[in-house]
Write a structure and sequence with these properties.
About 5% of the residues have low confidence. The chain has 16 helices and 20 strands. The chain is an alpha/beta fold. Helices cover 34% and strands 21% of the residues. It is elongated. An eight-stranded mixed sheet has the order 8-9-11-10-14-18-15-16, with helices on both faces. Strands 1, 2, 3, 4, 5, 6 and 7 form a seven-stranded mixed sheet that branches. Strands 12-13-17 form a three-stranded mixed sheet.
């Protein structure tokens, strides 16, 4: 994990591999942003002109490196684009700062220290820069086939493809080792708390990213459950793991039905954080399909190569519970990880089979590739028995949501309009793109079944909404419920951008942590 330090030193005086400054897109050319005054002075007040000569415009995400002028301790100046100059008296918004800092961190991969002299006007802007810089510094350690989420990784011992760390380092310089935040106030309690929050939050997002990036042959349901148990011991959390025998005894037909085609049996993990002064209780439910072949309804070629990411919801829930514990939030938070591997075999669930779900409802399985809603249904029903104030499930649930919202935005569905609005506001505040979606009542008829209480498929058009309607059927009366379909942003198959890496992104963790913080303050919308 990249170290984060706060510094009141001048950007010119800090010893670092590079000093990072912001440059905005002005009407007449690039404009050096606040925070870089000392660096600009070293260039005789002509840093903007030098950058323009080098082709810089200040466009968002643009990176320009140049040799430092005399008077600077760092040998390199890295100018990162912030986009348009903000309106008078308006500073740069938090997300702009996050993305700029993340872009700079990625550009400094392999360096020991970067001095970030971006516009920091208050604690909120300092927190945004810190968060973005740490998020952008992430790299996945491929040397042992595992991102390092477990300290004593059996994966490094078991995989024949494990490489010597030194050899891996030649190909991957590793993340930026230290971020020094110029303008941060190390003796100020608010700045110090913001830095500590950013570090803990990003470490847990990176935990989720590591799990998502781990190959499926190295992370089956039992492996995932072991990761949760290990983290629980480290952070004082309570866990309960239901194996296949316990699942059968308890009647968890959804999870068992999805997992019965695999040699790696399913698990349901309960991981809980409690605070003695908590007034609100949240239950988070995560889809944890460690590999999704589609089952008997096999996915076509080209659609299954990245299906190790189908446990991103469970990874987000796991990371959120640990983050809440590390931050000491005054909330009770229970995470439910519904873990299974969806594989075709002679024992696999067939299209047309009827499953008896936890709680007694029956479901006709029309498509075994609509498996996420089956494992979530069991876990949502079980979570509701504990009477939380709200349940939020998180899942890479439908390709239909990707078609509707693209690769960077997740959908929000709820049984309460005010809660839907609140979740949207929280996501935007946390810096995650989301969009509130409806649950049209006319689509409910499409999941009627002649042989069961309901079917796991309905109308093709609006498939993401149909999935939400299905899940709603398993929410107990009187419980506020939200559903986040993160199928688009959970796994980035394109090139990295801003603070977002290629591969697992840790989508929804920031939103869920912010939700938990609000709940700790007594506000659930």
């Amino acid at each position: 994990m990249t170290a984060l330090t706060l510094s009141t030193s001048s950007a010119a005086a800090l010893r670092a591999d590079a000093v990072v400054v912001g440059v905005a897109k002005g009407a007449k050319g690039p404009v050096v942003a606040a925070g870089a005054e000392a660096v600009d002075k070293a260039f005789g007040g002509k840093l903007a002109a030098v950058l323009e000569t080098l082709g810089a415009t200040g466009a968002e995400g643009e990176v320009t490196k140049l040799p430092a002028a005399s008077g600077l301790k760092a040998p390199v100046v890295l100018a990162v684009g912030l986009g348009d100059v903000p309106a008078k008296d308006d500073g740069y918004d938090a997300e702009t700062l996050r993305r700029a800092a993340g872009t700079a961190s990625r550009a400094l991969s392999g360096s020991k220290k970067g001095a970030f002299a971006l516009p920091i006007e208050d604690v909120a802007s300092a927190a945004a820069v810190a968060e973005g810089a740490l998020l952008g510094a992430y790299t996945y350690d491929k040397s042992n086939g595992n991102g390092g989420s477990a300290k004593d990784s059996k994966n490094a011992k078991n995989t024949k493809n494990a490489k010597n760390t030194k050899d891996a380092d030649k190909k991957n310089n590793g993340p930026l080792a230290e971020v020094a935040l110029v303008g941060g106030k190390p003796r100020d309690k608010a700045y110090k708390a913001a830095a500590e929050r950013a570090s803990a939050l990003v470490e847990e997002i990176n935990r989720a990213r590591d799990l998502i990036n781990t190959p499926s042959n190295l992370l089956n349901p039992a492996d995932f459950a072991a990761e949760a148990v290990a983290a629980a011991k480290e952070h004082g959390l309570k866990t309960e793991v239901l194996d296949e025998k316990a699942l059968k005894k308890g009647g968890y037909g959804g999870i068992l039905g999805v997992g019965q085609g695999s040699e790696a049996p399913p698990r349901l993990v309960r991981i809980a954080y409690t605070h003695p002064k908590a007034e609100k209780t949240l239950a988070l439910v995560g889809k944890g399909i460690t590999y999704d072949s589609g089952g008997i309804s096999l996915k076509p070629a080209g659609h299954n190569e990245t299906m190790k990411c189908d446990m991103s919801g469970a990874a987000a829930v796991f990371a959120t519970v640990v983050a809440a514990a590390r931050l000491g939030l005054r909330v009770n938070l229970t995470g439910w990880l519904a873990l299974a591997e969806n594989m075709p075999s002679g024992s696999a669930t067939r299209p047309g089979d009827v499953l008896s779900m936890y709680g007694g409802k029956t479901v006709e399985v029309l498509n075994t590739d609509a498996e996420g809603r089956l494992v979530l249904a069991d876990a949502i029903t079980r979570a509701g028995e504990e009477k939380p104030d709200a349940i939020v499930d998180v899942a890479t649930l439908t390709g239909a949501m990707v078609l509707a919202l693209g690769n960077r935005t997740f959908g929000i569905m709820t049984n309460d309009e005010a809660f839907r609005t609140s979740l949207h506001e929280i996501a935007e505040e946390a810096g995650e793109q989301s969009w509130p979606m409806p649950l049209p009542t006319h689509l409910r008829k499409g999941i009627d079944s002649p042989v069961a209480d309901l079917a796991n498929m309905g109308e093709r058009m609006g498939g993401g909404l149909v999935a939400g309607i299905f899940l709603k059927e398993f929410v107990a009366d009187g419980i506020t419920w939200g559903h986040l379909d993160i199928a688009g942003p959970a796994f980035n198959e394109a090139g990295p951008f801003g603070y977002t890496p290629k591969g697992g992104t840790g989508a929804a963790v920031r939103t869920l942590v912010r939700l938990a913080e609000r709940a700790a303050d007594g506000d659930l919308g």
